[in-house]
## 1
Amino acid sequence: MTAATFDSTFVESEERQALRQAVAALGRRYGLEYFIRTTRAGEHTHELWQEAGKLGYLGVNLPEEYGGGGGGIAELSIVLEELGAAGSPLLMLVVSPAICGTVIARFGTDEQRRRWLPGIADGSARMAFGITEPEAGSNSHRLATVGRRDGTDWLVSGRKVFISGVDAADATLIVGRTEDARTGRLKPALFIVPRDTPGFEYRPIEMELTSPEKQFQLFLDDVRLPADALVGDEDAGLLQLFAGLNPERIMTAAFSIGMGRCALDRAVDYARTREVWKTAIGAHQGLAHPLAQARIEIELSRLMMQKAAFLYDSGDDLGAGEAANMAKFAAAEAAAKAVDQAVHTLGGNGLTTEYGLGALLTASRVARIAPVSREMILNFVAQHTLGLPKSY
Ligand SMILES: Cc1cc2nc3c(=O)[nH]c(=O)nc-3n(C[C@H](O)[C@H](O)[C@H](O)COP(=O)(O)OP(=O)(O)OC[C@H]3O[C@@H](n4cnc5c(N)ncnc54)[C@H](O)[C@@H]3O)c2cc1C
């Protein structure tokens, strides 16, 4: 690795800075008020999604020959971070272009790439991602969704829970298992399941979140799929899964960092002007220091996210795995703390509907739980980075 390429993870190239500024300008035209108003009206942020798609932001990471921008997860994370910093994060960026787009671009057949990537890139098609199951939870070894061959077709059955955005997605990429013909063991396999496929049912879960993307329970009951619903090759399921999970973690970090910045900006604006005694409340170190600390922690987690994106985009899946886990952990903790401190800075106004920060309280906790909980990341680092024994 040359010094120049290494430096580029610290100092953003002019192209990336320009992308950041352009996305920030789009985000400002929508913002937190739009996001909360739309969500409370029970609507989706489709206008923003479509505009971002037309401008080429949704597919910055996808190959140019399929309508993408030819960049990587580094670019896509900039898009999500800046939209989030403006108050209008698009959660489905974590799923549609980052997981599904990446997996199909890397492992899909030519036909699957042609069918899905141009739409995912321009925003006209969306794909949800379903791995979590009610019984398996954090233990993905217990996944019980199974695809069985029936002639050339697949019959897929199972249940999923907490799957985001299924109602607005054309299809869901379902993580299941198939039987290995040689060993008889079950191994991971990814199936593209269009939303209107008979036997595929989705029901919303009531969540305490101000988010336009809803979470769903999925019921797959002998869902008949054609042979080409299986992504790529039957033997590459595990590789495919990891190819999708690292971008998911990096993008969840971007989601958190954007939200943390949004909350912090609002708190700082408020603390600069609100006077209770003789000076602005931001002059009191009891308020200023936690805000300064939140800024430092957000900045540090962004650095880790940039490292993870750099490793991933350079093809180092293994190195990216550790960095992506650490980045997601750090960003989720930093955002939860920043939002909490921002709410506190506004006093009573921190919980008014008008200031919009209360809505971020629950949203900022999501990244501590999903896509992998903070404890499972600590387990990963304890075992893989530190070499400590496993307790479970
Ligand atoms: C808003 C939201 C959106 C989501 N979107 C999606 C989506 O689009 N697609 C998808 O597939 N999933 C999605 N999820 C699901 C999410 O990935 C899971 O909730 C998460 O992986 C945790 O699984 P669980 O809820 O079953 O918790 P559990 O596995 O039951 O864990 C419960 C608690 O126990 C702890 N725990 C479990 N095992 C251990 C251990 N060995 N050591 C220490 N602690 C442990 C966990 O850290 C956690 O705190 C979403 C979840 C939320 C909240």
## 2
Amino acid sequence: MTSTSSWLDEDLTFSNDAKTNKKTPFYEPIVNGFESGYKPHVSYHYNPAVSNYHYGVRHPMKPFRLMLTDHLVIAYKLYEKMDLYTPRRATREELLDFHSEDYIKFLETVTPDNVNKFSQVLKKFNIGDDCPIFDGMYDYCSLYAGGSIDASRKLINGMSDIAINWSGGLHHAKKYEPSGFCYVNDIVLGILNLLRVHPRILYIDIDLHHGDGVQEAFYLTDRVMTVSFHKYNGEFFPGTGNYDETGVGKGKHFALNVPLQDGIDDESYINLFKSVIEPVITTFKPTAIIQQCGADSLGCDRLGCFNLNIKAHGECVNFVRSFGLPMMVVGGGGYTPRNVSRLWCHETSIMTNVKLKTKLPDELPFRSFFGPDYSLHPNLGDRIDNKNTKKYLENLKNQLLENIRFMRGAPSVSMSEIPPDIQGITTEEEDAIISQLNRESELDDIESDKRYWINEKDNARDLELVD
Ligand SMILES: [Zn+2]
């Protein structure tokens, strides 16, 4: 024993004893007196096909981060704690619940080969470096959107209390156009579905960027409250999200924005998050919550500028979970794949109420990619100067609490305001949709069993695993 700290770190104990390692479980239950009564049913919605798409070699958005996340979740055996679903693709009709007909038609038709024919409309649809046209783009969109729609349905029919779709969370997409790597807004689609039975829905976004697409979609209504924590200086993408954006008309006071500066650290982020979210929940009284868990707010993100560690990000999600409300959990940004996957695996363990061993399981595929520390919790803080002074954060908090007071309690919803069934689908209709989709695409031809094995295809992609 060389230092006092080494015996305090339980993960170092027995680290050289292979036999003990083998017998030690990957996780242990969290014993928490306050929460012992809450045992939510958790579901995990993931279609492995969604990780096979490529935005382009130099593009920072790497769908294979979802494959890495899934490998971690499986290696830690978290599948023992959740229902696993392989969601079908969203249908065209489902995408049209939010998006315009001509935009969806464009996404369906355009390919890298015929893109020249569309030169007239590329600008109209905001196609360019951020949102390129790539092979299978429409399938990719319908897969991640299908995950969020599936998750919302499991919450509606009571099969889940917490439904997770790490492939979703693409919060920038607009009704008529893509934005910031997002083509279809799966969050809006999930919320529209939940609005069929839930009077009030709270959306919380902790991505580095402002959740502008979701805010815009529900800016005029008091049935969906949107809260976004993000970097803001008026120029940083997408340029919106100052504290004075609070909603319009009936939606006035039902949008809340938390503009932050570079380098915010764990403690100030968690404190601000809790002191804002607690009064939001007790005042607005949501009946369901959508939590967007964008991982670009972590320190060391390729496009990031905050100093958050995985545990701090997770603590925010844990705090939301502690209110015991039906919850949909989605991914979002995150451009350093090895940290994105560590974060989302850690947050999956929070949802299932277990504590994971810090040392990554030996059986983990692509384990070498997580070196040199091979830890679930590398230090990601202290890289960037914290520009958020105590005074700035204090003033911001007071301003936000003032905005929350303006809300004056939860709006009551009369039945006439609940929109008519948007896609009430019977089991037979659902089966018909599935067989139709299966005929249309081989992508759905995936047995979920295969996920427990490292398949050849994954191995062939080893070269991709660079930042
Ligand atoms: Zn982002």
